[in-house]
Specification:
Elements lengths: L1 H5 L4 E16 L4 E16 L2 E18 L2 E12 L4 E2 L8 E14 L4 E13 L2 E3 L9 E4 L1 E17 L2 E17 L15
């Protein structure tokens, strides 16, 4: 470890988390409210030391509109450690973001088929990307800024015949860069996110 430390390549990561969740039922359990939170502590050594702690909430609501149809809404936040070396020399920040989703789920034909329709928006902040102005294979990174993915998904699953089950899915995702960190030239606001 001494030789690795002198070479600048000693890496260590410690990650602790605590998660609590409760689901509350209302109106004879036709409406359910889920409330949750996660406390995360991260300490990393990767070309320098970084430490972060954060509480990420999660709230969900589902309501049975009919015995076979449920509407739902969800909000949650993300906090994910990442490692790298920033060209600026600053400490690497964890990825933060949030997700908003709402939709409908339904059972058809006495439960032989299920369908779901979901609308969502996901934001991600601080994600690293290779620094295009640094020498190739330097390992230097820059924080991209903010990415947003939003779209719609539709699923149908069911039993066509005994022993034959089919699944069909349609997804439309619009994923773009919504903010760019000052000095980053590899992307512009409005660019499509690869992948």
């Amino acid at each position: 470890s001494e030789r690795a430390g002198l070479g600048g390549s000693f890496q260590d990561s410690r990650y602790y988390g605590f998660y609590a969740q409760d689901e509350l039922g209302f109106f004879e359990n036709r409406a359910r409210l889920t409330v949750a939170a996660r406390y995360t502590y991260i300490k990393q050594t990767y070309y320098g030391s970084a430490e972060a702690k954060h509480v990420t909430p999660r709230v969900g609501l589902s309501v049975n509109l009919t015995p076979s149809t449920t509407a739902y809404a969800l909000y949650d936040q993300a906090f994910t450690p990442q490692s790298g070396v920033l060209t600026s020399g600053k400490s690497v920040k964890p990825i933060t973001g949030n997700n908003i989703e709402f939709g409908l789920k339904r059972n058809w034909a006495d439960g032989r088929f299920t369908s779901s329709l979901a609308f969502y928006r996901i934001l991600k902040n601080n994600e690293l990307t290779a620094d295009p102005n640094a020498p190739m294979n330097s390992g230097l990174s820059v924080e991209l800024g903010q990415k947003q993915a939003q779209g719609i998904e539709f699923d149908v699953r069911g039993s066509l015949l005994p022993g034959l089950t089919a699944t069909a899915n349609y997804a439309y995702t619009d994923s773009k860069v919504t903010k760019v960190t000052e000095g980053v030239t590899v992307v512009n606001v409005g660019d499509v996110v690869p992948g």
